[in-house]
């Protein structure tokens, strides 16, 4: 499994969420580490559109208005961001997830 995850990793956003925090009223951010170091810094591939992802803060789920993006990535992890129109509380803990059975892929294949 670890040899495979060096090249490809799929994160199911329905079963699991990604913990992070609200950078401001319109942005979620998380430092996201890969299960094992990948072959190269992988690009992020999303399934669906922005409205397929949501940020949960306290009891509220706020629908994203763009797909999650990845920057500052390396073979070990990266910074995951997700935009919403508004409604987040800066500094508050939050979870990015997909109620629509979508996923995030990391692909470092040859």
Please state roughly what percent of the residues sit in beta strands, choosing from under 5%, 5-15%, 15-25%, 25-35%, 35-45% or over 45%: over 45%
Spatial order of strands in the largest sheet? 6-5-9-2-3-8-7
Mean pLDDT: 94
Low confidence ranges: none
Number of strands: 10
Overall 3D form? globular
Give the termini distance in whole angstroms. 17 Å
SSE class:
mainly beta
Quaternary organisation: single chain
Major sheet summary line:
7 strands, antiparallel
Assign a percent range to the helix content.
under 10%
How many DSSP helices? 1
What does this structure look like?
The chain has 110 residues and is mainly β. It is 4% helix and 45% strand. The strands form 2 sheets. The chain has a 7-stranded antiparallel sheet with strand order 6-5-9-2-3-8-7, with no helix packed on it. A 3-stranded antiparallel sheet has the order 1-10-4, with no helix packed on it. A hairpin with a 2-residue loop joins strand 2 (18-24) and strand 3 (27-33). It is globular and about 40 Å long. The mean pLDDT is 94.
